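Can't attach files on this board, so I'm pasting raw text. These are the components:
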Amino acid sequence: MTNIADDVLADLLARVRRLEDERDIARLIASYGPLVDAGEADAVSGLWADDGVYDVEGWLMRGRADIHAMVESPQHQGLIGRGCVHFHSPAVIAVNGGVASAVCETILLVRRDDSPDGHSRGFTVQRGGATHFELRRADVSMHGWEVVRRTTRLLDGSAESTELLSRARLSGGATAREPDADRRA
Amino acid sequence: MTNIADDVLADLLARVRRLEDERDIARLIASYGPLVDAGEADAVSGLWADDGVYDVEGWLMRGRADIHAMVESPQHQGLIGRGCVHFHSPAVIAVNGGVASAVCETILLVRRDDSPDGHSRGFTVQRGGATHFELRRADVSMHGWEVVRRTTRLLDGSAESTELLSRARLSGGATAREPDADRRA
Amino acid sequence: MTNIADDVLADLLARVRRLEDERDIARLIASYGPLVDAGEADAVSGLWADDGVYDVEGWLMRGRADIHAMVESPQHQGLIGRGCVHFHSPAVIAVNGGVASAVCETILLVRRDDSPDGHSRGFTVQRGGATHFELRRADVSMHGWEVVRRTTRLLDGSAESTELLSRARLSGGATAREPDADRRA
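---
Top answer:
Structure tokens for the assembled complex are below.
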């Protein structure tokens, strides 16, 4: 039997907390697609901070009410009625104290009305996008974190879209490794 | 140096165990696509409980033998021979003691036989689906968990399909946060 | 208050380290798509070991310089300029001390030039692939791990492609569960 050193325990607790933070953020992002494709306007808008921004080209939403209205809009309800999948790749998450960022790629699939190949209606990929999240810790939220800003841009070769993806480099670099002292504890 | 309080240690062990449970379930779900696209009938059916159910519209499988038979069926083997990808999004996982649920979206891509655009045969997206898993802990299983029921429905605007996705809301709400006391330990 | 047994502490630290290793590898793999679609040649080639291999059918790259050249090649830059998404599924990761393997499925989406359905240009799925990673621990790397070999094969029904996916079975079996003694600590 041995006593555990104060700093070893503090370090261990911080490492577990970081894993939980990353898990919470990954889950928040993973829930966006299912919730928006289900038309869950309250749950989708609840992923954002009260003053959160959702900036997708052609549509700038400020605050939960705007995001709620997007989910209930004829445009989005039309996608759901036809059959749609907002698919997100696993995100590259970087937590830095009470704030975090995440980068992923997103595709939007919509069910075809026609049947061009004869044996399946199938889906078309209507959009492919670069997505960047800024988040902040929110212990009162059921997710533990809330989205401060989500920016999504069509992947069409524009510098604006690839710049969002490049942040996966900075994020990874900033947080991929704890200081060696922490890892060796 | 200090002693660690009993409740702090118990809490820490419970938090690590939860992260491991979520990791085990995420890995089980992530392995489904590669295994079913490889035709690994034993490994695929082994993800389910002995009495597990796989309910995909038009095909209700009860027990591992049914699932094994699906993988070896001419229909599925035809997909593999042509070239297919059963793609799953990151799952929203909720563990509650010895049971768990998970929600994700799934797409099925199949290689084209023709070459409509002249420079690539490419793949078509044949289906987009809503998927819900019920799982239970199974310490004797190599995965630590086994699927009790998987339900998949085509995303075609039906209430049945969007209801499956809505469970991402309930799952998240139930388990996204530990009680504050646990987090502050 | 109680002392923590040496073996309980050692076990707990090992379990947290494993979760961190898996997190680091998942993040490395998740970053590949955003980085390669952004044309970040330094960051992409930096995911590989100095002597790492990237073996994709029709293109065998040996070492970081080869991978860097692929990202800057006219072929790849053409994809970026048109708009592309290298989408990876969540990986099945198996860590074994200082080495690890991972299996995932990958799809390549490219923006259409034409507008066949009249209301969206959309993307086509140009390729679907089986991908296997061999990695090794690299504490000096900012990712903590580096790719020793990545093998990707078109999913076209060939034994070579499905054999890569079958490794998700072996990986899972090898590491899905810690010995019971560790889990019960």
